Amino acid sequence: MPMPDHSLPLPFDPATAGDRAAALRRWRRIAGLYLATVACLWLAARLVPRLLPDYIGWPWPGFWSLLRAVGEAGLVGGLADWFAVTALFRHPLGVPVPHTALVPQNRDRIADGIATYIDSEFLGPDRLRGQVQRLNAADQLARALADPANRAQLADLALASLPRLLSRGREAALREALARAAMEGLRAMDMRPMVARLLRDAINSPLFEALIQEVSDYGVVLIHGSRPHIRDAVATRSKWWMPRTLDRSLADQVTDALAGHLFDLRSPYSEAGHALRQWLAEIPDRILDGDPLGDRLASVLRNAVDIKTLRLALHHLIGRLKSAALEDAAKPDGVLRDALDAMLLSLAQELDQPATRARLDAAVEGAFLAAIPGWRMSIRSFITDTLKAQDAADFARRLEEGVGKDLQFIRINGTVLGALIGAALYLLDLTFG
Question: What's one GO-annotated cellular component (predicted)?
Answer without folding.
Answer: plasma membrane
